[in-house]
Design brief:
By secondary structure, this protein is mainly alpha-helical. The chain contains 25 helices and four strands.
Length: 534
């Protein structure tokens, strides 16, 4: 069946994606957990149902779902087939959360002391006193996801629901709906942006429209102009907040605009021969596209691939991906003048005199200093990759080949790849034999032996946690993940530095830009913090 997605739905989706950039990792993990919940046959919940609840939660639009769920819980609790642990039996043990199974569960009418339950042709009809309520079987999946979320937040809710609703009237149902909403509201205080965040994103959206700017059109000068002349409301003071909010907002808007173009322009359905596109595929693709933020802070944990000092210069670039290359100067300004402003904020809290002193003290780092830090971080990524290759090689793990090929000098890579293609074409060559043959090939090439010796020495001199001795074979998965993450960091930083190199004509352009920026930021900081009332 062909259908098209309406504009109203897209408008709702746009705001969902925008404010999603602030949802805590805990809540994101909960959504992911719901999506991957195992059921009787594969995943318990359909991806679109989890996405719908995620949208309701992020948009703080969960009141009607809680109300509808409360009526469904009443029907289940008062179903005579489930005399004890009704919710657990209905939603978890029997999994009556698909339309067919739901209809089957209520195939026989139920009459209770407080009301009647009857499955009609299209809806489950509830009659409770003078109140009638209908529940569509196609809604049960969404409601089940909401109940799972509530139970994940507070497991004791299941027994509370059954106690409250058994032989209860509509007052108890309304009370339960209120309880659900209070529980979710309290939980979201720690896990989702406040209304002020939405206000900031709306202000940015309006500003972009006024200046006819899109994600592709935004320049470094636009970012600077926004900070120098922000909207009247809400208040924008910190340059780092301006940059983060601008980039988060335009990234979200771009994703949702692509969603709109895909869903509104294409016919959705299962008939590929007629040019229809599967709706689930579209939704999955869009969600994957929206995952543009790389949180790789775990690289500084155990095993410690990087120190915090090595990781932090890259962190802003990792957070904003391709936009870092589109707006190279904005990130240079963030690294130098964002740090200066943070010191001014701290000084303001101490005393007027301390603030005045800090205003006179220009940053002791220039743009070239930040680039040197990035170069060092990139170099560290390469070295740790070489150490990881040594670990896999020493433990005779064939994955060594893939890690090594990404790190060796280009001419050596090409020679090895040509040789390996010939070996792989041999039908008698196994993965184990290939690794042994690669080892023998490496022994025959002095440059390869030099690289391996260098890798061994780097490992010997690496005293960070997780690299003081060879790990167990069973622990290699985390080192493989680390290798892939470091490769991502290395590639992103290298691309950013390439953009800067092209910009810095004859090594003079950045120095000129820095002198100009120093004047601009110094004057602006004096306006913000230099007034007597500041």
């Amino acid at each position: 069946m062909k259908h098209r997605i309406g504009a109203q739905k897209i408008k709702s989706g746009r705001m969902t994606n925008i404010i999603n950039y602030g949802v805590s990792d805990t809540l994101k993990a909960l959504f992911a957990q719901l999506k991957d919940t195992p059921g009787l046959n594969g995943h318990k919940y359909h991806g679109k149902d989890v996405a719908q609840i995620a949208q309701n939660i992020v948009c703080r639009n969960y009141g009607s779902v809680c109300y509808e769920l409360s009526f469904l819980c009443w029907a289940v609790v008062n179903h005579r087939h489930y005399s004890s642990s009704a919710l657990l039996s209905f939603f978890w043990l029997d999994e009556n959360i698909q339309p067919k199974r739901f209809r089957q569960a209520f195939r026989q009418p139920v009459q209770t002391t407080s009301g009647n339950i009857c499955m009609g042709e299209d809806y489950l009809q509830l009659q409770i006193g003078d109140v009638e309520f209908a529940i569509s079987p196609t809604r049960v999946g969404v409601l089940a996801v909401m109940l799972e979320l509530i139970a994940s937040i507070e497991p004791a809710q299941l027994s509370n629901i059954e106690t409250l609703l058994l032989d209860a009237d509509t007052k108890a149902i309304k009370q339960l709906s209120s309880n659900f909403q209070k529980l979710i509201y309290s939980y979201l205080k720690e896990h989702i942006p406040e209304a002020s965040t939405q206000e900031r994103f709306r202000a940015i959206s309006e500003w972009l429209k006024q200046h006819n700017l899109t994600a592709q059109k935004l320049t470094d000068q636009d970012v600077l102009d926004f900070w120098l002349n922000p909207p009247a409301q809400p208040s924008y003071i910190k340059y780092s907040t301006v940059l983060d909010d601008l980039l988060d907002a335009i990234t979200a808007i771009e994703v949702v605009e692509n969603t709109f173009n895909a869903e509104y322009a294409l016919s959705l359905g299962s008939n590929s021969e007629q040019g229809e596109v599967d709706a689930d595929w579209v939704q999955t693709t869009v969600f994957e596209q929206a995952e543009n933020v790389s949180d790789l802070g775990w690289l500084c944990q155990s095993p410690k691939f990087l120190t915090l000092a090595q990781y932090q210069p890259m962190n802003p670039l990792l957070s904003h991906g391709k936009l870092a290359r589109q707006l190279p100067l904005s990130f240079l300004r963030l690294s130098i003048f964002g740090g200066w402003q943070s010191k001014l904020v701290q000084a303001k809290r101490k005393s007027t005199q301390v603030l005045s002193d800090k205003l006179q003290q220009f940053p002791n780092r220039h743009y070239q200093d930040y680039l040197a830090e990035l170069n060092d971080s990139e170099s560290q990524c390469k070295q740790v990759q070489q150490v990881i290759a040594h670990l896999f090689y020493s433990l005779n793990n064939p994955l060594f080949i893939g890690i090594m090929l990404k790190q060796m000098p280009t001419n050596l890579q090409q020679a090895l790849k040509i040789w390996m293609r010939a070996q792989i074409a041999d039908p008698t060559e196994s993965e184990v034999n290939l690794f042994i043959d690669v080892q023998q090939w490496l022994y025959q090439h002095p440059k390869a032996q030099l690289w391996l010796t260098e890798a061994a020495n780097l490992f010997k001199n690496n005293n960070k946690d997780g690299f003081k001795k060879l790990p167990l074979v069973t622990q290699l998965d985390i080192y493989q993940d680390g290798s892939e993450a470091l490769d991502h960091c290395q590639e992103l930083v290298a691309r950013y530095l390439l953009v800067i190199t092209k910009l810095n004509h004859e090594n003079t352009q950045l120095a000129e830009i820095y002198r100009s920026d120093l004047c601009i930021f110094s004057n602006r900081f004096k306006q913000i913090y230099g007034a007597p009332h500041a």
